[in-house]
Amino acid sequence: MKDKIVIASAMNHMVRIHAACTTALCQEADRLHDMYATSCAALGRTMTAAALIASDLKSPEEHVTVSIDGKGPVGRISVQADGQGNVRGYVQNPQVYLFRESDRKLDVGRAVGTDGTLTVSRDMGLKEPFTGVVKLVSGEIANDFAYYFAISEQTPSVVALGVLVDTDGSVRSAGGLFIQLMPGAPEEVISAVEQIAADMKPMSAYIDAGMTPEAIISELFEEPEFMEEKPVQWNCDCSKEHFADALMLVSEEDLLSLIEEDHGAETVCQFCSKKYQFNEAELREILERHRHVEHRQRFH
Question: Which one of 3.40.50.880, 3.90.25.10, 1.10.287.600, 3.55.30.10 gives the CATH number of domain 4-234?
């Protein structure tokens, strides 16, 4: 099944639904970062949520950045997504495996931790991005996003995120769902959505059974109105030029050390693990640019 996000409305436009299949996206992240199952589930859930949030963006220049740091074993999770469905992300410690014997599930909550925050930053091309920060409530990620929507955006939401990791450690299925109540939703609609949430299967189970986002929405809601469909894919736009600009921020002393002692430098993209090599000549050019910028700043 192809990765995509489907946006729909139901219950006389009192409910807005975003449903996603993100299996290939999570498989690619797993391949690039060589993750253990619990790290993979944590990153996959966060990437799916970021993609769902970004699906409301209109311009390719607009994007969403999500950061989760609960001080748990996986460390910080960082994800970027744009309105064209491009997503990239990484987890600080990709090799965490924690399992809960009580329900035979991956213990994402313990891996992520709750001693920290969930931050969502929406860059809409304005002077400053809109940023919301909430405390983590469970570390399971879906509950934390539901809390974020309620507190930071005053939008009551049902959030379901799932990554099913197979016995061989590979991603078998992944997907997500946002059900959001519109302002003025009557009590009967609120009660109906609460019942739908209570009766839902895990999101990864729907995807694993071969159900498309449209089929999942149609199973949960009567006569939904499908509004939009968007692609989702892994895409990292890192480049050697980007890292050259980053090296401009390194001190002159450190640049000289890279040139004279290391005779070069290697940079690695945290998102896709791609490596970029800089030889002495390239580093000297960066050093000259660095000195030129510092000179201009000193006399302006």
Answer: 3.55.30.10
